[in-house]
Amino acid sequence: MSYIQGETGDWEVVIGLEVHAQVISNAKLFSGSATEFGAAPNSQVSFVDAAFPGMLPVINEYCVEQAVRTGLGLKAEINLHSVFDRKNYFYADLPQGYQISQFLQPIVGKGEIVLDLPDGTSRTVGVTRLHLEQDAGKSLHDQHPSKTYIDLNRSGVALMEIVSEPDMRSSEEAGAYVRKLRSILRYLGTCDGNMEEGSMRCDVNVSVRKPGDAFGTRCEIKNVNSIRFVMQAIEYEARRQIEIIEEGGKIDQETRLWDTTKFVTRSMRSKEEAHDYRYFPDPDLLPLELDAAWVEDIKKTLPELPDDKKARFIEDYKLSVYDAGVLVSEKSKADYFEAVAKGRDPKLASNWVTGELFGYLNKAGKEIEESPVSAGNLGGLIDLIADNTISGRIAKEVFETMFETGEKAADIVEKKGLRQVTDTSAIEGSIDAVMAANADKVAEFRGGKDKLFGFFVGQVMKATQGKANPAMVNEILMKKLKG
Amino acid sequence: MTALTHLTMAEALDGLAKKEFTAVELTEAHVRAVEAVRPFNIFITETPDAALSMAKASDERRAKGSAGPMDGLPIAVKDLFCTKGVATTAGSHILDGFKPEYESTVTSQLWRDGAVMLGKVNLDEFAMGSATITAHQGETVSPWSPGAPGAWDRKIVAGGSSGGSAAAIAARAALGATGTDTGGSIRQPAGYTGTVGIKPTYGRCSRWGIVAYASSLDQAGPMTRTVEDAAIMLRSMCGFDPKDSTSVDMPVPDFRAALTGDIRGLRVGIPKEYRVEGLSSEIAALWDQGIAWLKEAGAVPVEISLPHTKYALAAYYIIAPAEASSNLARYDGVRYGLRVEGGNLKEMYENTRGAGFGKEVQRRILIGTYVLSAGYYDAYYNKARQVRTRIKWDFDEAFKSCDVILTPTAPSTPFAIGEKMDDPVQMYLIDVYTVPVNLAGLPAMSVPAGLGADGLPLGLQLIGRPFDEETLLRVGQVVEKAANFTAVPPFVA
Amino acid sequence: MSLDKATVAKIAHLARIKVPDEELESLAGELSQILTFVEQLNEVDTKDVPPMTSVAAQKLRRRKDEVTDGGYAAQVLSNGPETAEGFFVVPKVVE
């Protein structure tokens, strides 16, 4: 447990998350308009999305399938009978005056997510439910000094609201939760997890308590759109609440916003008044009935998910828990690794992928999909090491060039003449020259100063421009020095 | 030859087929009739130009031999159906200036089958009412009102909410009209005006493009002067629509073929609980007469029990306002219709909706908001839905021992404008016989059966099994023939 | 059930309908009358009776995931009381 130190002692922060994940689909949840991001304002809007008189919703089957797939991926109960309700409230970007959502009977019930924490441990967080609902449009407040502009392109896009239990106890756990959930959604292909484009948004419920006490009053921080902000908002909000309580105040249950420029949470004025959403079953829709066999069919098509993949990497490739965790965090990384490892030493493949490759990508600010070094080319490099064409040290140099130019390892080795020297006589020649030039050190070595061995290796490698086979250098050098 | 505006649809189709007159001639006669009924405030929007060009196209189709089942028939459209490029008001100030860019499924099917649009007719605002007196565009006066147009002795209501549709047909300003029925809004005005109206089974007609009042109850249907015409028009209005999740994918029968006149052995249910307080003696007598007619035709009357019927109105006045409060949330001054500015968004909403909705609509939105609000949901809304289930069960049980049910359409003859208006609950009681049908989703129709002592029409209601409109129509035509209702309103165009 | 003025004002606000103060009293009376009328439902035994959502005895139909609609911003905006640069426009909203 990581407690927060207050004036009056330790405090525990309690966090629950509601993640809104945009469903990957061609068309909207209840209308046939497109869902693509970044289109001209109101160009992806039907009369249904804009709630014109007499317009009616018809559900998109694929969105239902995606929700079921996600539920299965979260090891959750799938409710074969679920109901769409109207959540009534007025807002400029909510054309119907209600959001079609699921209240009492969601499509997915209890599930779980296993968090991989930075210290290598894992922890299971409960998922309370997942339900399908419509997204609202977008309000733009900065286009005009006294007006708000409304774009309904997003209105009616399918969202999955995934609600966690209040099981998290630190901002790190909350961060790990969002990362893991995003990873699972991406594996499943049900949400692209792109937080900058708003495909994934978090409402963060934060309360604090003295360890062992009952839950405190929570505040909900709405619409946080990056993992970093989720963590920062929790840190700030927990401190704020602790200060208020320690100064004798009490927490008002309210909706707050994370201010991304001032790094504070603040009360949301527009949401001040008490809500009364007047949920009731949408009479334009019937209950959603799923066929158990249909759900089974979806289950059969589920991909291997991160937890299973991680276990397999540890079991089959003998990778460390840490490396396996890093590699499965994104499906594209895991796929890359497996392509490199195929028919090669998995440990070596893992080292190259998590070490050099991720390091270079990170520095270049690139995703693995954009890597200039393909999995095949990295495999080629490893093959050159394995068959002693180049040494590990030269390989790093070759990799740098590969990353810059995208060329194949063998071509670079050929062009630059980096092929490893394995000719005994050539190596002996270099060793002899080094020993002759350092007769005094040879004497010292022979006098018992063993540490000088490294110096000789270095000199020989320098003389051969690193191309000499290190194992051979060691062996011959030792033999000659011991004379 | 009968004046063109006095023909039935069946007769008009016959005349068109025999080239006795053209669709343009038929339409021109009706366009003049539409002008003649202006004092009654029946049409909100007249569309004579569109009517004539549609009629011309109809004549061309007929000349090529490709006439549809309603080709050339001029009809009126309740102003609750969205019509492309033609103002659609729902009788409300809040839809000021709204011209839909789309056509409702039901009207587009009517045009597909060749019908000609004369214009959009009046209704109670958002179909909430029983008299067609709450529209922003004013009240519709029934052509049955005694006295000269504009100087009536008594201004009689046309019923509602489809009062404009009923009045247009009764006044011979249209051969038929579309209506919608949420709690009796087709059958009650049909009864009040001596016309025929059918509320089909819930799911028969698409709700797409019809301004919603209460989604689980709303259903469109035809209003005509004869049962045969209703059968003709119903066939065009029905049909599966993938754009409406509650539309039922079932074949549409040729309803006209069901009009065999043979009801021998058919069991006609007479609900014992319907002899309610407030049922006028002349209506009770008419009801008995109706039973006698059907008996003479070979049907067998059977007493049935619908014990929860008396709670139907109470359940309706929770369920309908609850759905309406949500359905009408979209009228907010942002994307279409009226906007009344305010200092901020919230004020703009409140000003717009305060000015845009009339009193009855506001009342229903407020009741609906209240019964759905935190702490009251179970006591009101959920309770009403449970009672609705019991009402449905009552009908299921009753239809085990009968094939069709006969009741009065309304407990009294139409009242005059100004009467019954102070007390909303008194007004609601008019729908006592029609509302249970909507709660159970059943098909029902009103057939003119006679005149009251005041010279005003009275109707009988028939209720059928789900999707058995055919039996309904067959029995309806037997009642129609027996009643031989030939009375004509004091004013006809 | 009898509603007081304050409750009516509250639900009017929830429904975003401006009701002038002087009308609250009479509106409270009318709404109370309706609520009293509907309270007769308490006489009905509804123990174990499922609440009805829809009379339509069918499953919810689902459509294919195909783009078949939208792409007509001009029509969507054509009825707008205030629009600019392809957007609907409302008074400034402060979040």
TrEMBL record, chain A:
According to the UniProt entry, what is the EC number of this protein? 6.3.5.-
What's a single GO MF annotation on this record?
Answer: asparaginyl-tRNA synthase (glutamine-hydrolyzing) activity
Q: Which reaction does it catalyse?
A: L-glutamyl-tRNA(Gln) + L-glutamine + ATP + H2O = L-glutaminyl-tRNA(Gln) + L-glutamate + ADP + phosphate + H(+); L-aspartyl-tRNA(Asn) + L-glutamine + ATP + H2O = L-asparaginyl-tRNA(Asn) + L-glutamate + ADP + phosphate + 2 H(+)
For this UniProt entry, which segments traverse the membrane?
Answer: none
An individual GO BP term: translation
Alphabetic keyword roster: ATP-binding, Ligase, Nucleotide-binding, Protein biosynthesis, Transferase
Location of the Asn/Gln amidotransferase domain: 335-481
Enzyme class, UniProt record, top EC level? ligase
Subunit structure and binding partners: Heterotrimer of A, B and C subunits.
Q: What is this protein called?
A: Aspartyl/glutamyl-tRNA(Asn/Gln) amidotransferase subunit B
Automatic annotation (TrEMBL), chain B:
- Statement: the UniProt record of this protein carries the keyword DNA damage: no
**Keyword terms, alphabetized:** ATP-binding, Ligase, Nucleotide-binding, Protein biosynthesis, Transferase
Its GO CC terms are: glutamyl-tRNA(Gln) amidotransferase complex
EC nos: 6.3.5.7
Cross-referenced Pfam families, in alphabetical order? Amidase
Q: Which residues form a coiled coil?
A: none
Q: Which PROSITE patterns match?
A: AMIDASES
Superkingdom of origin organism: Bacteria
Assembly: Heterotrimer of A, B and C subunits.
Outline what the protein does: Allows the formation of correctly charged Gln-tRNA(Gln) through the transamidation of misacylated Glu-tRNA(Gln) in organisms which lack glutaminyl-tRNA synthetase. The reaction takes place in the presence of glutamine and ATP through an activated gamma-phospho-Glu-tRNA(Gln).
Recorded protein name is: Glutamyl-tRNA(Gln) amidotransferase subunit A
Q: Which organism is it from?
A: Azospirillum lipoferum
Gene it is expressed from: gatA
From TrEMBL, chain C:
**Keywords from the named record:** ATP-binding, Ligase, Nucleotide-binding, Protein biosynthesis, Transferase
Biological process (GO), any one: regulation of translational fidelity
Q: Name the InterPro entries on file.
A: Asp/Glu-ADT_sf_sub_c, GatC
* Keyword Cell division among record annotations: no
Q: Which GO terms describe its molecular function?
A: asparaginyl-tRNA synthase (glutamine-hydrolyzing) activity; ATP binding; glutaminyl-tRNA synthase (glutamine-hydrolyzing) activity; transferase activity
Q: What is its EC number?
A: 6.3.5.-
Q: Which domain of life is it from?
A: Bacteria
Q: Does the keyword Nucleotide-binding apply?
A: yes
Q: What class of enzyme is it?
A: ligase
Query: What's one Pfam family the UniProt record gives for this protein?
Result: GatC
Task: Name the reaction it catalyses.
Answer: L-aspartyl-tRNA(Asn) + L-glutamine + ATP + H2O = L-asparaginyl-tRNA(Asn) + L-glutamate + ADP + phosphate + 2 H(+); L-glutamyl-tRNA(Gln) + L-glutamine + ATP + H2O = L-glutaminyl-tRNA(Gln) + L-glutamate + ADP + phosphate + H(+)
Q: Function, please?
A: Allows the formation of correctly charged Asn-tRNA(Asn) or Gln-tRNA(Gln) through the transamidation of misacylated Asp-tRNA(Asn) or Glu-tRNA(Gln) in organisms which lack either or both of asparaginyl-tRNA or glutaminyl-tRNA synthetases. The reaction takes place in the presence of glutamine and ATP through an activated phospho-Asp-tRNA(Asn) or phospho-Glu-tRNA(Gln).
Family named by the database record: Belongs to the GatC family.
What subunit structure does UniProt give? Heterotrimer of A, B and C subunits.
- Its name, as the record gives it, is Aspartyl/glutamyl-tRNA(Asn/Gln) amidotransferase subunit C
Source species: Azospirillum palustre
Specify the taxonomic lineage. Answer: Bacteria, Pseudomonadati, Pseudomonadota, Alphaproteobacteria, Rhodospirillales
Name the gene that codes for it: gatC
